[in-house]
């Protein structure tokens, strides 16, 4: 029997929905399988906003991917008319030697990205809501800003469907097997069994369960997002005045925040980068405690004192961390002819969603990509090579 599809994509969150669009746009017969509904808040791609930036402190190797992702985000907005990107500018704040500042500067210089260095007085002058200490500086980037996760997933789902992809929601994959000998894969759900030439697995926080044979020691981490109504109202926090920021303290703790993007009563969002607690998608505590809110309000009173006026709401989300916090994007080392994986986005993947979709389409259809993804090879994280 010939396979029912060219490619099956499992997990239609950020990465998987982008993959279905890029695969369908290249003429592949695509089946997408998703455990929950389209655009949901039980994984990692919800909460209204994600930071995007180019002077990447994590590693300069990400910059070419970011430049392509920016192009694709703008294309996504043009193709669907949805609001997905707001480039309000951004500041990476901390001491000059902090990873946030020094790492961002390294990427900016290496890739000749437009940026400015601001001392504490200049930060206060340009962005009066921010109150840096005298020994803190910032890298300011005009092309930084935010992307909207729900709108991005909805846009990719829309384009994939228009391109002929067959997307099944509320139909989780139960298991898969590689058939060997270039015969592709078989995928089982409660409803049916499907076959395809290739499987792309984008499981987010479900990676430890769905990709055990990858051998990567993932840590799933509970994260909290907080929305506050600033004292004195949101006007100074609107995106034409207020940048996105990542702010690193002397102890290495990073906090990040957004302008007020959802109207006068919805406040502005802030969160710790990392500092979460280990969890699983089944056991994550979704209730946010009062002491967590108080700790965030206290932290922000030192950096953005007008922000923690009134607490509005909080929500949880999951990071899927690899030990070195770099992504995993590759053909599966144990099933290179049949399976591609995209996981371990370690709390910084959303800004890459469209380019990851493009890379996954390349890997699934040709086995290779022109994008630089050597850093994301899972074999760097396994004790012994699997294949
Ligand atoms: C609080 C928070 C803040 C963040 N901030 C930023 C930021 O500012 N900038 C940035 O770039 N990144 C940020 N990130 C990271 C970014 O959001 C994630 O890297 C990205 O959303 C991961 O996408 P994903 O597709 O891997 O996971 P998800 O979007 O969670 O998708 C995985 C999907 O797989 C589905 N699934 C699981 N099991 C099955 C199964 N058996 N069958 C079918 N489907 C299945 C799930 O239901 C889910 O829809 C943040 C993340 C969080 C949680």
Detailed description of the structure:
The protein is an alpha+beta fold and 387 residues long. Helices cover 25% and strands 27% of the residues. The strands form three sheets. Strands 5, 6, 7, 13, 14, 15, 16, 17 and 18 form a nine-stranded mixed beta sheet that branches. A hairpin with a 5-residue loop joins β14 and β15 (254-257). The radius of gyration is 21 Å and the shape is globular. The two termini are 29 Å apart. Flavin-adenine dinucleotide is lined by residues 10-16, 33-36, 43-45, 47, 50-51, 172-173, 202-206, 210, 223, 225, 271, 317-319, 345, 347-351. Its EC number is 1.5.3.2. Keywords: FAD, Flavoprotein, Oxidoreductase. It holds the Pfam family DAO. This is N-methyl-L-tryptophan oxidase.
**Rg result:** 21 Å
For the largest beta-sheet, the strand count, sense and barrel status come to: 9 strands, mixed
Low-confidence stretches: none
Mean pLDDT: 97
**What percentage of residues falls in helices of 4 or more residues?**
10-25%
Distance between the termini: 29 Å
* Secondary-structure element pattern, one letter each: EHEEHEEHEHEEHEEEEHEEEEEHEEEH
Total DSSP helices? 8
Oligomer kind: single chain
Please state the structural category. alpha+beta
Q: Which geometry do the CA atoms define?
A: globular
Strand residue percentage? 25-35%
- What small molecules does this complex bind? flavin-adenine dinucleotide
Keywords:
387 residues; alpha+beta; 9-stranded mixed beta sheet; 8 helices; globular; binds flavin-adenine dinucleotide; EC 1.5.3.2; N-methyl-L-amino-acid oxidase activity; oxidoreductase; flavoprotein
């Amino acid at each position: 029997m010939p396979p029912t599809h060219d490619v099956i994509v499992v997990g239609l969150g950020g990465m998987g929905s982008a993959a279905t669009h890029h695969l369908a746009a290249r003429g592949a017969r695509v089946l997408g399988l998703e455990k929950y509904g389209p655009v949901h808040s039980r994984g990692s791609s919800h909460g209204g906003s994600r930071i995007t930036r180019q002077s990447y402190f994590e590693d300069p190797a990400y910059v070419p991917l970011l430049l392509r992702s920016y192009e694709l985000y703008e294309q996504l907005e043009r193709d669907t008319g949805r609001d997905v990107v707001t480039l309000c500018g951004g500041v990476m704040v901390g001491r000059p030697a902090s990873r946030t500042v020094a790492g961002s500067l390294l990427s900016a210089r290496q890739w000749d990205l437009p940026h400015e260095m601001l001392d504490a007085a200049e930060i206060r002058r340009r962005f009066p809501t921010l109150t840096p200490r005298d020994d803190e500086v910032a890298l300011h980037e005009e092309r930084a800003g935010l992307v909207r996760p729900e709108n991005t997933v909805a846009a990719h789902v829309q384009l994939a469907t228009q391109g002929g992809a067959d997307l099944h929601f509320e139909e989780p994959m139960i298991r898969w097997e590689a058939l060997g000998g270039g015969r592709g894969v078989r995928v089982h759900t409660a409803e049916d069994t499907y076959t395809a030439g290739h499987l792309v697995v984008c499981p987010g926080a479900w990676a430890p369960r769905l990709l055990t044979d990858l051998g990567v020691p993932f840590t799933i981490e509970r994260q909290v997002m907080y929305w506050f109504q600033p004292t004195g109202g949101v006007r100074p926090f609107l995106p034409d005045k207020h940048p996105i920021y990542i702010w690193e303290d002397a102890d290495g703790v990073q906090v990040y925040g957004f302008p007020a993007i959802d109207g006068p009563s919805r406040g502005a969002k802030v969160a710790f980068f990392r500092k979460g607690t280990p969890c699983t998608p089944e056991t994550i505590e979704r209730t946010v405690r009062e002491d967590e809110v108080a700790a965030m309000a206290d932290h922000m009173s030192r950096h953005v004192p007008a922000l923690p006026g009134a607490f509005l709401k909080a929500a949880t989300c999951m990071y899927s961390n690899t030990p070195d916090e770099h992504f995993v994007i590759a053909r599966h080392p144990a099933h290179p002819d049949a399976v591609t994986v995209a996981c371990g986005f370690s709390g910084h993947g959303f800004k890459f969603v469209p380019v990851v979709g493009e890379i996954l389409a390349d890997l699934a259809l040709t086995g290779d990509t022109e994008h630089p993804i050597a850093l994301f090879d899972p074999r760097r994280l396994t004790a012994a090579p699997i294949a």
